[in-house]
């Protein structure tokens, strides 16, 4: 219920309607209500109660209408068999423990039953873990090399050089500036 206009279906935060008093149903805010001169009247059903009364007939009708307007259809899933399941949804079972089973916290009410095919470190090596770890190490080495290049310092020096070239008045000054910043273009520059 909106506490600004006293209508149902929205809140006062999103209300752009004229205010109606919760006490007397007149077109003013409740803080401006002169209760002594006005009798209490619901803004929705015009009976002798405030508009926020939970037993208001208009409110009850609104709630019932809202409940009945909701469609409560539940679709039952079709029976799935291995023959009509798409290939990308099929799982391969190996008889060993699953990843989720290994990581699950122990259940105090169940007893551990040893599996016939326990997961071994060699299985992880064969699964590509070593390859992944090698790639991570290579990426870390690349980032270390990039840190050594001092790219921010080089960019700052290039910006200085461009500013000086733009202010140079003749070709000799420009050649002199390029000579001073030649280290930026040297392959051996750290």
From TrEMBL:
Q: Which InterPro entries does the record match to this protein?
A: Znf_CCHC (IPR001878), Znf_CCHC_sf (IPR036875)
The CCHC-type domain, residue ranges: 2-15
- Source species, domain of life: Eukaryota
**Which keywords are on file for this protein?**
Metal-binding, Zinc, Zinc-finger
List the GO molecular function terms. nucleic acid binding; zinc ion binding
Name of the protein in question = CCHC-type domain-containing protein
């Amino acid at each position: 219920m909106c506490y600004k206009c006293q209508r149902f279906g929205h809140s006062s935060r999103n209300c752009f309607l004229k205010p109606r008093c919760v006490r007397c149903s007149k077109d003013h805010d409740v803080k401006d209500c002169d209760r002594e001169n006005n009798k209490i009247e619901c803004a929705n059903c015009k009976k002798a109660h405030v508009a926020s009364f939970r037993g208001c007939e208009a409110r009850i009708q609104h709630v019932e209408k809202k409940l009945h307007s909701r469609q409560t259809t539940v679709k039952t899933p079709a029976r799935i068999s291995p023959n009509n399941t798409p290939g990308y949804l099929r799982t391969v079972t190996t008889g060993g423990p699953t990843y989720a089973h290994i990581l699950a916290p122990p259940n105090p009410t169940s007893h551990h039953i040893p599996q016939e095919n326990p997961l071994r470190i060699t299985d992880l090596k064969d699964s590509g873990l070593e390859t992944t770890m090698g790639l991570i190490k290579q990426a870390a080495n690349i980032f270390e090399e990039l840190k050594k290049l001092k790219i921010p310092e080089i960019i700052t020096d290039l910006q200085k050089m461009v500013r000086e070239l733009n202010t140079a008045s003749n070709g000799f000054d420009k050649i002199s500036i390029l000579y001073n910043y030649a280290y930026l273009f040297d392959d051996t520059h750290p």
